Amino acid sequence: MKPVEGAEEPRHEQRGRHERPGDSGRPLRVALLGCGVVGSQVVRLLHEQADDLAARIGAPLELAGVAVRRLGRKRDSEVDPSLLTTDAEALVARDDVDIVVEVIGGIEPARSLMLAALADGKAIVTANKALLAEDGATVHGAAKRHGGDLYYEASVAGAIPLLRPLRESLAGDRVRRVLGIVNGTTNYILDKMDTTGASFTDALEEAQSLGYAEADPTADVEGFDAAAKAAILAGLAFHTRVTAADVHREGITEITATDVASAKAMGYVIKLLAICARSDDGRSVGVRVHPAMIPRTHPLAGVREAYNAVFVEAESAGQLMFYGKGAGGAPTASAVLGDIVAVARNRIAGVHGPQESTYADLAVHPMGETVTRYHVSLDVADKPGVLATVAEIFAKHDVSIRIVRQEGHGDDAQLVLVTHRATDAALSATISGLRELDIVRDVTSVMRVEGEESS
Fold it and tell me: In which residues is NADPH bound (predicted)?
């Protein structure tokens, strides 16, 4: 974000560092980096709720400037043109800025801007899940080193207050598992496939037409967005540094209308789940994102359209569920404003919020060690002994079959099996063995089953 030649930068007054926010009515000044879908809503809320925010904080908030890529672009909310600048570095470096709000996304220049702000004693509020999941260690390290606040509630699940309860409310408990729907786009697509029988392609096109999916939906439908959020959730839940590279990731592009119909016939619904779980011995954690079948009686099965919902299971608190709008300009901006209020109060009080907690330093175990269940559909020859031969392959790898169902006859015979719990490595080896059988024409669908812990 370099200055546009000839563009006039907004004039501002430099304030002395000795002057504390709130003294003699001194406002806290906010530098906003980015004014897209989320940033424009942050501007709107800062203006519309100015009096309430000042009362909650104990001092007024002022928008010091807004860094954008293009000055003349039309925006969702009206922004005073005198506040706009294309020089984000200069805006962050200003002495009169107290809080830097980053909603431009991506790795660079967001990382460099945040590091510069923290080194200069400013507080950071961000919605940048990609940066936190890929290189959160660097940003957290800078916050700790310089004694600065780093808040990022808006990075996961939009308006849903989820990260603060994990970081603060459950700090005295032992979290066992976090299970949830954290991507509204994929949930909308799968919901439409389930309720209308639509194909993946048709459901995606509908999501794009409604603005739920981007023109390039790869980050959503391939699970990258959910994986970044899962890494952040796991880090907070288990006091262990987890990156996006640690997360096993699968998307929903291979889900067919036949898969959805088969799940429905057996009383299941397919969802893209983020699953962060502590191992039974408590020495490691597994973090994964993939489509899975869950019983229609499970609370997550009823999460419709573009909504998000997350289950947190803790030893003392039991099961907690967080539900709401997981994306969109206004919901995400609401979470950003909540963080702004928190860091503003800290600055007035002369204190800092909680730092990254990684004391547990648990290992992240590979997907093969994860214990799960499978739903397997096979296109098989319709003749005697098929089921016995298939069962031998399962038994060879110590995988127990829970449900068997045959659909169709003759050339259209389909064998559907649901397993009991076994390691993912054993289940994968079973699938490989099935593919080698002459009687198995095709392994048409393989999907994990969640939400039935007693099975």
Answer: 129
Amino acid occupying residue 443: V
Flag whether 325 is marked binding. no
Q: What percent of the chain has pLDDT over 70?
A: 92
pLDDT digits (tens, 9 = 90+) for 406-418: 876 666 678 999 9
Q: How far apart are CA 87 and CA 90, in angstroms?
A: 6
What is the per-residue burial (b if ≥16 Cβ within 10 Å, else e) of 430-453?
A: bbebbeebebbeebbbbbbbbbbe
Catalytic residues: 229
| Predicted confidence (pLDDT) per residue in 235-253, tens digit | 999 999 999 999 999 999 9
Domain 28-158+331-349 has CATH 3.50.50.60: no
Give residue 367's pLDDT band: very low, low, confident or very high (50, 70, 90).
Answer: very high
Q: What is the CA angle 214-136-357, rounded to 5?
A: 130
Per CATH, the homologous superfamily of domain 162-326 is Dihydrodipicolinate Reductase; domain 2 (3.30.360.10)
pTM, 2 dp? 0.90
3-class state of residue 259 by DSSP: helix
- Enumerate the domain spans of the chain: 28-158+331-349, 162-326, 367-449
- More confident: 273 or 12: 273
Q: Which fold has domain 367-449?
A: Alpha-Beta Plaits (3.30.70)
Burial of 146 (0-12, 13-18, 19+ CB in 10 A): middle
Three-class DSSP labels, 90-142: HHHHCCCCCEEEECCCCCCCHHHHHHHHHHCCCEEEECCHHHHHHHHHHHHHH
> What gap in Å lies between CA 40 and CA 38, rounded to an integer?
6
**36 is an annotated ligand-binding site residue:** yes
Tell whether residue 22 is among the known ligand binding residues: no
**214 labeled binding residue:** yes
The sign of the torsion formed by the CA atoms of 344, 348, 349, 350 equals: positive
